[in-house]
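Students often ask why inverse folding is considered easier than folding. One informal answer: many sequences map to the same fold, so there is more than one right answer. In these notes we will look at a single instance of the problem. The structure comes first.
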């Protein structure tokens, strides 16, 4: 898909609000279908949503459509969401700890401080650790972590080649002392995420 190889949303990529409104339903259906192949659950509570140009383009337009902040808002949204588009040698994910029950959610988050330091891919005998945000601390002084984390996985050439190989066994795991789980990526998900890497 051509959208997957774009690395930045420019001002020229932004549709007029009226045009987006007319296409919104169809665009939403398209991005929902794409997101199904970019979602990985690890254990019962953690879900990784892997971002790309398409998902971020849609998010920017949704923010503009809902908030209607005009031209000034466009620059802010591009600044916020462009950094989440992978640049050819990485995967970028929004990890969410999704627990409906507020009591269990609070108790779980209280035990998962610095969970972002315990997340990695394994492929082709290589471990690719997650890197969390450098400008925001997601764990509070009391040890409680946020339910949302933005993560980057930097791959070298050998790891990219291994990831791209059809049928490759790709693992995504969390080895936090209070949350140890691992998932094997389905082939359709592996193939979709492999498109994030530059040729």
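Output (designed amino acids):
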């Amino acid at each position: 898909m051509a959208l997957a190889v774009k690395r930045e949303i420019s001002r020229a990529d932004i549709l007029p609000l009226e045009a987006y409104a007319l296409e919104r339903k169809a665009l939403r259906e398209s991005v929902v279908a794409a997101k199904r192949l970019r979602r990985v659950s690890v254990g019962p509570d953690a879900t990784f949503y892997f971002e790309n140009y398409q998902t971020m383009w849609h998010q920017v337009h949704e923010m503009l459509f809902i908030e209607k902040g005009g031209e000034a808002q466009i620059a802010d949204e591009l600044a916020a969401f462009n950094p989440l588009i992978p640049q050819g040698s990485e995967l970028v994910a929004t990890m969410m700890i999704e627990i409906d029950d507020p009591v269990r959610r609070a108790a779980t988050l209280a035990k998962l401080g610095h969970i972002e330091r315990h997340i990695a891919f394994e492929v082709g005998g290589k471990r690719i650790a997650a890197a969390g945000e450098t400008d925001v601390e997601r764990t509070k002084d009391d040890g409680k972590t946020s339910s949302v984390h933005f993560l980057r996985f930097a791959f070298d050439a050998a790891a990219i080649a291994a990831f791209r190989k059809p049928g490759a066994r790709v693992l995504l795991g969390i080895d936090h002392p209070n949350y140890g789980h691992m998932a094997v990526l389905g082939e359709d998900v592996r193939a979709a995420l492999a498109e994030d890497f530059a040729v």
